[in-house]
Amino acid sequence: MVGAIPVFYGRVVAALVSLAALIVSPAQVYCVGIVVDAMEEDQSLGKLGRTRVSALYALALLFSAPVILLHMRALALVSRKTLVALSGSLFCASCLLLAKTSGEVSLMLVWTLQQLVGPGLLFPAVELALLHWWSERRGQVSAAVQSTGALLGMLFLPAVLSASTCNDGDCWRSAYMALGVALILPVGVVALLLVEGGAIDYDLQLDGAAPLHPEPPAASAEAPSLDAAQQPFDEEMLALNPAERWTLHEALTHTAFWLAQVSFSAVHAIVNAFIFHRVDLMRDVGLPESKAMSLQALVAISCMLCTPAGLFIRRKEQLLIVALLLAAAGLLTLVHNHTPSGLYVSSMLIGCAFGVTNGYSTVIWEYFFGRSDAERIKQTSIAITSATSGSAIWAFAISRAEVGTYQSCMNSLAVVALILAGIESLALAKPEL
């Protein structure tokens, strides 16, 4: 298959990763936020209310997070094609099951299943293939994939879901049932086109360079240049330097990992809460619910445009500070300019913060700890982020229930973000062994 494709197969892999982002988006907050109002009023779910629904979704994120650490072990047991096909089929089935839920326990269990097999297994299994096809240009390719994924997963599919969902009753069920059936096709495409192995297994070089010489002596002679090709161009990211080959255990015992991780988790939690509760935020400033999708479009487009930020900032730890400041600015803008225009500006700032976190999530761990164990370090970070990303969703809901507004919670989270930005600017730097 690789030889029959007229373009470098790594480009196909990049497209498949973007498609995988689209497939798993029904489990993500930007799709769940579309139907959350309808879920609250659903008689079959017992009219749970915003606080209960928020808590259930946060618990689903928490319970499913450890599975993200297991996908590499799963790939050691079954082929990538098999894992993608199985997890994709289960994800489609989970969408159908979600349409049949009745009661809060079944809702939480199905949400947990979606997180397990979608963001927990399917997407990481496909994304991992990028490592086997791209090296020197991986940063640019990852940024392009993240931007395309934001366009598809945050904008295209939520728009389709929004168009087929009403604000009350159980019409959200038919929408998710249709998604469960429709997603079978892209799951099949990804499973069919994804191949085992990487560029070297097909006598190709990473990044689409000239093919490796097929004769063993020449291949041996070329080995050092292959390692050289895997070195990042940026001198700030000499990831294969022997002195920088950090293991996962060594990274987890260094304060740099936890300083970066706390900031990463904080930004994701703030963005998730903003998107999840955006309809209520609109009501508070007098905007009609029909504008909800336009608000999400602002977040998605801002995210897409800011994702490549990591390519232009040499000191990657500064990306953490930028993301925190953008998130804090987004919250404070809405608190102190509680108008429709303030909400639109806030949406763009929150989207930019999310885009910057997407950008640095692909480069920050290699920059800090080298490439030796970067993938396991990255997946550990994603698992922690997933486990904590529902915390602000719940906090927003509690604030709304207790004091009738989100503003006190938004002020508190903005202060946390600003404090973390100050700490990062003083204490966070690229670690040394």
Automatic annotation (TrEMBL):
GO terms for molecular function: transmembrane transporter activity. The keyword Secreted does not apply. It comes from the Eukaryota. The chain crosses the membrane at residues 55-75, 82-99, 111-131, 143-163, 175-195, 255-275, 295-312, 319-337, 343-368. Pfam families: MFS_1. The keyword ATP-binding does not apply. Keywords: Membrane, Transmembrane, Transmembrane helix. This is Major facilitator superfamily (MFS) profile domain-containing protein. It comes from Coccolithus braarudii.
